[in-house]
Amino acid sequence: MRVVRSVAAMQRLALNRRGKGRIGLVPTMGYLHEGHLQLVRAARRQSDFVVVSIFVNPIQFGPKEDFRRYPRDFRRDRRLLESAGADVIFYPAVKDMYPEGYATFVEVERLSDGLCGASRPGHFRGVATVVAKLFNIVMPDVAVFGAKDAQQVFVIRRMAHDLGFHTRIVIVPTVREKDGLAMSSRNVYLSQEQRAEAPVLHRSLVLAKRLVGQGERSAAKVRAAMRGLIQRESGGRIDYVEITDTDELKPVRTIEGETLVALAVFFGKTRLIDNIVVRTGSCEL
Amino acid sequence: MRVVRSVAAMQRLALNRRGKGRIGLVPTMGYLHEGHLQLVRAARRQSDFVVVSIFVNPIQFGPKEDFRRYPRDFRRDRRLLESAGADVIFYPAVKDMYPEGYATFVEVERLSDGLCGASRPGHFRGVATVVAKLFNIVMPDVAVFGAKDAQQVFVIRRMAHDLGFHTRIVIVPTVREKDGLAMSSRNVYLSQEQRAEAPVLHRSLVLAKRLVGQGERSAAKVRAAMRGLIQRESGGRIDYVEITDTDELKPVRTIEGETLVALAVFFGKTRLIDNIVVRTGSCEL
């Protein structure tokens, strides 16, 4: 496994490899957990040359967000990626990705506005921009993302399709702790008490799925039940609990077809997200 | 020479060709003139497989601009490109490039705001977006643009560099009619009288270059001399006459180093642009 730090060297490597077997890319911000490693294994199965990028991307953080204190541990990440079968870690410096005079941004309209986009203005612009740039540098035939970041998945899928990237976008299901909490690098911020309460997020999603399975079609009623559960069973402050279509991510009143149930809840300063996709009709999930 | 109309077919072709010799791309809006053909010949010299795209890109036209009446003549273009040595014409439909639900745009900040961007809001967003998409579809190692569209050149160069495209951007000098008028598909709009007056644009640029060569360093004085000449010798309505740096395209007060002298002038409804780059110091142009 090689570690490549420069943008130019990574691109030279990709130019040499492209067309000679599939290149797989797993974009991460590091501080890896089992969820990331599942992405790497999926990339391993679906490509011949696996690049994992580790880059805490400043332009997807708001001015009051946790860019500086975002957890980092490169040596541990390197060890984990070696075991998971990565061929290259692409580990660029911020000033190599965004040199002085940097001016170009990729925007995905509409899909970036609601859900996390509403409380994190500019976040998905930063995500779409860095992913487009990583695609140009690494030239992946396959790129793998985790379903936990649902809006990110929809934004990137739309961006890749709209801009004509040849890269196939693969989504891997959320990996959870035994008590249901979605794995996240940010879980490390939680106090013991917050950690004990946080699984209520997943329970609220399971509740939503059960209600829809029982025939409930009112988004308002499902959301109210979820909010009630979260408020009864935790001290979390709800940022949003939303139910949207899976095309434009617009809130729906009636749950039918493929529908995203997504939430963001603060535990102290730590903002956790989770989601589930439910399907009504013949192909119930 | 092949004509490829579908985005998917063009990308399949590029995926098969990439890495086996250099792919060259010349993005055009068709209605080709000698200026375009020079771009194709430059691409021919610098690459092994030359793709010329013909696409009148709706998203770079404002609502009151000439998208609908923009001149088109595909049969003539095809004949010219055959002679100039293109391998492929990529000739996509608008609904294949921008299908329903299209949402992604590429923005180049600062460089897109002044000059033509001031009177054509959104124009360079449309340009940057379509060029990024063409780069992803055609995967060119070299892309060739004409110097006549100066701001476009700077915006695309910045975009390609910022987003990490491996594509090398090649700029070919403006091709002019014998009387100095820059070749443009829009020259066909001019009445006989307007056509007779239009070469004053080039004369004003030559005047600017001469003044700078004689030691004039005041941008205000050079601009005033240019405006005076245009107003004396034509009925053109000046949109802008501007002198900027060649990095961020910001207006300068003092002309030093590499400087862009650019203008846009309306003759009736027809907006013509032209420019020249002047250099002070040891390497006078």
Q: Your description of this structure?
A:
The structure is a homodimer of 285-residue chains. Chain A has 285 residues and is an alpha/beta fold. Chain A folds into two domains: 2-172, HUPs (Rossmann fold, 3-Layer(aba) Sandwich), CATH 3.40.50; 185-280, Pantoate--beta-alanine Ligase, Chain: A,domain 2 (2-Layer Sandwich). Helices cover 38% and strands 22% of the residues of chain A. The first copy, chain A, is built from ten helices and ten strands. A six-stranded parallel β-sheet of chain A has the order 1-4-3-2-6-7, with helices on both faces. A three-stranded antiparallel β-sheet of chain A has the order 8-9-10. The longest helix of chain A is centred in the middle third of the chain and has 16 residues, at 123-138. Chain A is globular. In chain A, 44% of the residues are buried. Chain A binds chain B through residues 7, 11, 15, 18-20, 101-111, 128-129, 132-134, 136-137, 139, 158-159, 162-166, 247-248, and chain B through 7, 11, 15, 18-20, 101-111, 128-129, 132-134, 136-137, 139, 158-159, 162-166, 247-248.
